């Protein structure tokens, strides 16, 4: 895998001196508003734009001296971006919070007032997209999602800014995603999504991936609750399978990644 000099420059800006992306995430929107409302004991409608922006700014100011970057959203996070420590790079979310629940397939959408060019103009070092994805969903649904990611990848390539893709697996049949049956399916969902979005046509530079197993169903784990989806050896093997054969930078659920890529032509 090669990365252009332009994209590599941005990745360096997001990383520690040891080339580790140790980013904090504060792009939460609907869930954050709900949490703040609950903490204040008020209705969500009472949480104003100013309150959201103030909270994100405070978190950014406190955390970024200890992080290599911060992930924010353009809706309430732009003032916060200006409050980040000088050592911290900036990732900006491009997607609408949540998904379209009026149609099957958890289809994504982009913020209507945002483009990759605008994200670049706002001083970001990377574009981040979250998408709900399952290799087992309807082929037509996944075709829409594939085209969606291809378009964003092309935008990022045009503007020479890294593309961070986060996918969240789910059960297209509506099953309990915290239950035993989905736990058995989860390794195939995670590995299948990694395999798909590692393809060159998507232009993804960093994949933020889920853990490929649910630890509460690993027999013998410290959080095991009595229902077995995999043995300890099987769980470890799923981690190995998720690591082997994908020539991409990966970010864990804690937004960390290590890269040793060279710019194209070197």
What does this structure look like?
The chain has an eight-stranded mixed β-sheet with strand order 7-6-5-4-3-2-1-8. The model is unreliable at 252-266 (pLDDT under 50). Helix 4 links the parallel strand 2 and strand 3 (89-93). It is built from eight helices and eight strands; from the N terminus they run αβααβαβαβαβαβαββ. It has one domain (5-258): Aldolase class I (TIM Barrel), CATH 3.20.20. The chain has 266 residues and is α/β, with parallel strands linked by helices. The longest helix has 21 residues, at 139-159.
Quick summary:
The protein is an alpha/beta fold. The chain has helices spanning 5-13, 30-40, 49-63, 78-81, 116-121, 139-159, 180-197, 232-243; strands at residues 20-25, 69-72, 89-93, 126-132, 163-168, 206-208, 249-251, 256-258.
- The percent of residues in helical segments reads 25-40%
String of helices and strands:
HEHHEHEHEHEHEHEE
- The helix-and-strand class reads alpha/beta
Query: Overall mean pLDDT score?
Result: 92
Instruction: Just give the CATH class.
Output: Alpha Beta
Tally of DSSP helical segments:
8
Supply database-style keywords.
alpha/beta, disordered C terminus, 266 residues, 36% helix, 8 helices, eight-stranded mixed beta sheet, TIM Barrel
Fold blueprint:
Elements lengths: L4 H9 L6 E6 L4 H11 L8 H15 L5 E4 L5 H4 L7 E5 L22 H6 L4 E7 L6 H21 L3 E6 L11 H18 L8 E3 L23 H12 L5 E3 L4 E3 L8
Parallel strand pairs: 1-2, 2-3, 3-4, 4-5, 5-6, 6-7
Antiparallel strand pairs: 1-8
């Amino acid at each position: 895998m090669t990365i252009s000099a332009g994209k590599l420059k941005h990745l360096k800006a997001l990383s520690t001196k040891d080339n580790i992306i140790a980013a904090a995430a504060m792009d939460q929107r609907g869930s954050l508003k709900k949490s703040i409302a609950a903490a204040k004991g008020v209705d969500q409608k009472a949480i104003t734009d100013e309150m959201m922006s103030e909270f994100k700014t405070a978190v950014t100011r406190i955390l970024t001296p200890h992080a290599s970057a911060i992930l924010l959203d353009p809706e309430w996070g732009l003032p916060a971006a200006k409050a980040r420590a000088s050592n911290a790079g900036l990732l900006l979310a491009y997607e609408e919070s949540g998904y379209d629940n009026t149609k099957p397939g958890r289809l994504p959408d982009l913020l209507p007032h945002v483009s990759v060019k605008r994200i670049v103009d706002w001083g970001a070092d990377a574009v981040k997209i979250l998408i709900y994805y399952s290799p087992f969903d309807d082929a037509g649904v996944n075709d829409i999602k594939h085209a969606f990611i291809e378009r964003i990848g092309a935008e990022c390539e045009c503007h020479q800014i890294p593309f961070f893709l986060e996918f969240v697996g789910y059960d297209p049949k509506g099953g309990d995603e915290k239950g035993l049956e989905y736990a058995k399916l989860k390794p195939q969902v995670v590995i299948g999504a990694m395999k798909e979005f590692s393809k060159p046509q998507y232009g993804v530079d960093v994949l933020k991936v889920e853990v490929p197993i649910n630890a509460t169903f690993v027999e013998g784990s410290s959080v095991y609750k009595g229902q077995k989806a995999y043995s300890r050896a099987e769980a470890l093997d799923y981690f190995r399978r998720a690591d082997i054969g994908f020539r991409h930078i990966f970010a864990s659920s804690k937004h960390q990644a290590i890269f040793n890529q060279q710019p194209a032509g070197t």
